[in-house]
Amino acid sequence: MKIAQLTTYPTIAPRHGGQIRAFFLAHALRYAGHDVRHFALCEPTHTQAARDDVILSKRDLSALHFSPMLADYATSLLALKEPYFERLAQHLRAFLPDAILLEQPWLFPFVRKLYPNQIPLLLYSAHNIEHTMKAAMLQSVGQSDMNAIAAIESLESEVCAYASATIACTQHDSEILASMGAKNCIVCSNGVDSLRYKADIEQILRKSLASRSFALFVGSAHVPNALGFWDMLSSDLSYLRPEQLIVVVGSVGRILHQYAPKKDSILHLLNEQKIKILGEVSRDVLTALLVNANVILLPLTLGGGSNLKTAEAIVANRPVVATSLAIRGFEFARNFTNFAIADTQEQFITALQAAFAQTQPPLQKEEQNMRHNLYWGLTLAPLAPLVASLELPSEPAQPVPPTATKKPLSLSHRTDSAQPQT
């Protein structure tokens, strides 16, 4: 089956959770024998994109006057306008897919415009309940946009109604999607790739961190990641001992201080000595940090779906301090060794201090097996049988013909190697 995967982000060098999930979904379908091509309509903030990915202009996004937290929805609207509609449409006309794998609902209006009579077989990959998450994100920074949230909810319901099958991250999301009209809904939880790394990386990290004990916080430049960090760890990190450090990995490091509580400069200077921001790192470095951390932090206080970083923390077999929200979809981890659940700032800090003070005991065989069930090859196992069970439409869907243009459309693109990173 020829499957076109549509996203609002590139997946050639996956970094954030949505990119990584989409990357491995496509990989699983290719492994099952399908011809999967990825096409994206991306914000200009993405620095690594494939040849067939279309990049939006910053000016066009800004002209819509949406909060940055609603950039996905703005992308959905721009997908219907030129030159973006035609730039993306020409790729699908050339590929002529039998099915469309829609990652999140944002590009469904584009699909409906391209196929006005009959759309190809539609597979909906839902990463969150988007309207609920977007409303909570806006509320967390004192904003609201009732019209946009209502439009997003309507869009999600429309996708659920049209899709022949839906892939959810958690059982909780699956039930909500079913109530919105989703059919043939399966749960494929987030997973983990191999946790192997080059031997010399560990020595380099010890030198970089001056052999200090460290708590690891990994996240993308997703506002809830920064808000959760400060909500659960506080703006005053003086409780950390001189030999203790919080290491921040991923693009969240770019926005962490932007969303810090407004305190005096003395606290800011103190925190600078307690936090080491590494930014985006290679997969080798991330893996070495995960398996050597004294404790892994999951201070998630907003969001839906399931947290891919939680799966990584579970498989790394290190002590973890997490909120209840961070283990959505992974509730079985509550009873794991050295896995603390803390939902107030005081509880979170107390658990962090306890984790620094203790050593990791050997894991029981049953717990080891449960942790190792989170590799992508296992979490995505229901996907291929689901797709194999679906019937294609009797007649192939026909896209609208191209619009006349005075000059050939050029694609905005950048290329890089396709390896998941953080």
Concise structural overview:
This protein has 422 residues and is α/β, with parallel strands linked by helices. It has helices spanning 17-31, 58-63, 71-78, 84-95, 108-114, 130-140, 146-162, 171-179, 199-208, 223-233, 265-274, 283-292, 308-316, 345-357, 365-372, 376-379, 383-389, and strands at residues 2-7, 35-42, 54-55, 99-103, 121-125, 165-168, 185-187, 213-218, 244-249, 275-279, 295-298, 320-322, 339-341.
**N- to C-terminal separation?**
31 Å
User: How would the global form be characterised?
Assistant: globular
Structural category is: alpha/beta
- Biggest sheet strand order reads 3-2-1-4-5-6-7
Largest sheet, strands/sense/barrel:
7 strands, parallel
Strand content: 5-15%
Give the overall average pLDDT. 89
Number of strands: 13
What is the H/E string?
EHEEHHHEHEHHEHEHEHEHEHEHEEHHHH
Q: Segments where pLDDT lies below 50 for 5+ residues? A: 406-419
Number of helices: 17
Helix share of residues? 25-40%
Rg for CA atoms: 22 Å
Protein described:
By secondary structure, the protein is an alpha/beta fold. Helices cover 40% and strands 14% of the residues. The protein is built from 17 helices and 13 strands. The chain has helices at 17-31, 58-63, 71-78, 84-95, 108-114, 130-140, 146-162, 171-179, 199-208, 223-233, 265-274, 283-292, 308-316, 345-357, 365-372, 376-379, 383-389, and strands at 2-7, 35-42, 54-55, 99-103, 121-125, 165-168, 185-187, 213-218, 244-249, 275-279, 295-298, 320-322, 339-341. The chain has a seven-stranded parallel sheet, sandwiched between helices. Strand 4 (99-103), helix 5 (108-114) and strand 5 form a beta-alpha-beta unit. The radius of gyration is 22 Å and the shape is globular. The chain starts with a strand and ends in a 33-residue tail after the last helix. Residues 406-419 have low confidence and may be disordered.
